[in-house]
């Protein structure tokens, strides 16, 4: 009898938390200032467009100053404003200097910029590894460190970390990228519970997309592509903005991939490794990405 009661209570509790309990919706409008890294290209630029349509004020930190004028035009077409800061996110001093120049309150931080050096580990230089970790992991950590006290003082804040399904599973030619995205997820999860512990007003959202058609993973191919085709950058941007508005803790794209990747993680290593090597192995020479 006790087991039945416990089970019933557990099912009701789970249903409440997973299905019924709705987070209050976050309103993205002209009262919100969003700082987004890597806004000049790819999904960052798509998110800037969507945020501009909602009339949010946009601050972009990006290394590609040459693309800033075009981004500004796009944002202004939708009736919003852009403050652009040229900033190399692999340089911690530049990040600190840039944040010190911004006077207005930042409500939402989207850590989106990323790099991927698609090479086998033995072909990567130590500089490749350092750059990947600095941009994909240390920059989001430093920006969070700098902005959390300001967000707590203004009693509002939302931090979004754009990870990847490679925050959970693995693949070929992605040792540095995968390690940096795993680290980002570990940081994000630990930060979230600490914020909850102290009842902080800051919310966090982790985004884990599958491969996107931006060029970062140009040439990525496997024998199981028919199951999961490359995502379009417009769709990914729409889903990220929706996840922020709904204040989701985590959102993978496609959404079932969170569960699937976590299940793949539990496969015995020989099975998981066999699948990766057989499916992706024959095509790795075509996987070149941007290899900046
Ligand atoms: N493309 C994919 O298949 C894919 C899949 C899953 C997750 N992601 C993640 O999504 C995010 C965006 O990816 P994307 O495909 O739009 O990438 P992208 O290469 O199209 O754009 C990346 C942006 O980051 C900027 N950037 C790169 N290095 C920088 C630096 N040192 N300092 C400042 N800015 C810098 C670039 O200038 C660019 O604007 C990344 O975090 C990436 O890891 C991408």
TrEMBL record:
Which GO molecular function annotation, any one, does this entry have?
oxidoreductase activity, acting on the CH-OH group of donors, NAD or NADP as acceptor
The highest taxon in the source lineage is: Eukaryota
Segments spanning the bilayer are 6-22
Keywords attached to this entry? Membrane, Oxidoreductase, Transmembrane, Transmembrane helix
Alphabetical list of InterPro entries matching this protein: Sc_DH/Rdtase_CS, SDR_fam
Q: Which family does it belong to?
A: Belongs to the short-chain dehydrogenases/reductases (SDR) family.
Protein name stated in the entry: Uncharacterized protein
Organism of origin: Paramecium octaurelia
């Amino acid at each position: 009898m006790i087991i039945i009661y416990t089970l019933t209570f557990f099912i009701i509790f789970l249903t409440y938390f997973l299905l019924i309990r709705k987070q209050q919706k976050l309103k993205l409008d002209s009262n919100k200032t969003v700082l987004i890294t890597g806004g000049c290209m790819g999904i960052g630029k798509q998110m800037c467009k969507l945020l501009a349509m909602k009339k949010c004020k946009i601050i972009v930190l990006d290394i590609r100053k040459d693309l800033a004028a075009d981004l500004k035009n796009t944002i202004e077409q939708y009736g919003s404003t852009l403050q652009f800061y040229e900033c190399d996110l692999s340089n911690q001093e530049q990040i600190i200097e840039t944040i010190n120049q911004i006077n207005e309150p930042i409500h939402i931080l989207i850590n989106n910029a990323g790099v991927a050096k698609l090479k086998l580990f033995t072909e990567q230089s130590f500089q490749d590894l350092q750059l990947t970790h600095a941009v994909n992991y240390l920059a989001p950590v430093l920006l969070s460190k700098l902005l959390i006290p300001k967000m707590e003082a203004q009693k509002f804040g939302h931090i979004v970390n754009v990870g990847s399904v490679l925050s959970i599973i693995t693949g070929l030619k992605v040792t540095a990228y995968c390690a940096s995205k795993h680290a980002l997820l570990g940081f994000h999860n630990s930060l979230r519970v600490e914020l909850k512990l102290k009842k902080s007003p800051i919310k966090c959202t982790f985004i884990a997309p599958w491969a996107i058609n931006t060029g970062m993973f140009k040439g990525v191919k496997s024998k199981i592509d028919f199951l999961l085709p490359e995502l379009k950058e417009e769709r990914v941007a729409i889903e990220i903005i929706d996840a922020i508005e709904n204040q989701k803790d985590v959102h993978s794209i496609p959404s079932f991939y969170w569960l699937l990747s976590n299940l793949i993680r539990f496969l015995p290593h020989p099975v998981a490794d066999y699948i990766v090597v057989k499916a992706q192995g024959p095509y790795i020479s075509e996987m070149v990405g941007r290899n900046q």
